[in-house]
């Protein structure tokens, strides 16, 4: 057996490193690359990118690739994505369905954030129900005094109210009966411009 040292890549230019990262993304036919994927397919070590660019995510950004993980995402963004998936399916999403292109975030991301995927669904329902209850409480108050002192609000319904209305109607159109669960091309709206 012949022993031989691997080539030392100490002074490799940034452009060469980024080009190799883009090459791996092209080989994988993906717009993002994880550290493990790069370790198996790349010419350099992932730690080289961390040292050179500050973090793996900074290297992905410099290479024009998408992030592999999402940090600092608010609960509302998680819920908004879950609402989109729920409306698209026309029913409660399952763990195995939470992946791209349908979902921006994975089910394991929800599980990490909320303790389990089921707890994420429960938090989403609690959040939307609380929003609906608050809206109902506002309607029952005396509107004569409130209307004079309250500033005008947008007439566009919030995404939470949209979800509550669509859930009430079982994610089907009340006039024509269309549903995204039956026909994936159907997009539901709260009201028809032309009924």
Overview of the molecule:
This protein folds into two domains: 14-62; 72-140 and 156-195, no CATH class. The protein has nine helices and no strands. It has helices at 14-28, 35-41, 46-53, 56-62, 75-89, 107-114, 117-140, 143-149, 159-168.
Helices, strands, pairings?
Blueprint: H1 14-28, H2 35-41, H3 46-53, H4 56-62, H5 75-89, H6 107-114, H7 117-140, H8 143-149, H9 159-168
Helix pairs in contact: 3-4, 6-7, 7-9
Number of helices: 9
The span between the termini is 79 Å
Domain unit count? 2
Mean pLDDT: 78
* Global structural class: mainly alpha
Shape, principal axes of CA atoms:
elongated
SSE sequence, one letter per element: HHHHHHHHH
Indicate the low-confidence ranges by residue numbers.
134-148
Largest sheet: none
By DSSP, the count of extended strands is 0
Radius of gyration: 24 Å
Strand content: under 5%
Give a quick rundown of the structure.
This protein has helices at residues 14-28, 35-41, 46-53, 56-62, 75-89, 107-114, 117-140, 143-149, 159-168. With 195 residues, the chain is mostly helical. It folds into two domains: 14-62; 72-140 and 156-195, no CATH class.
Could you name the key traits of this structure?
195 residues, mainly alpha, elongated
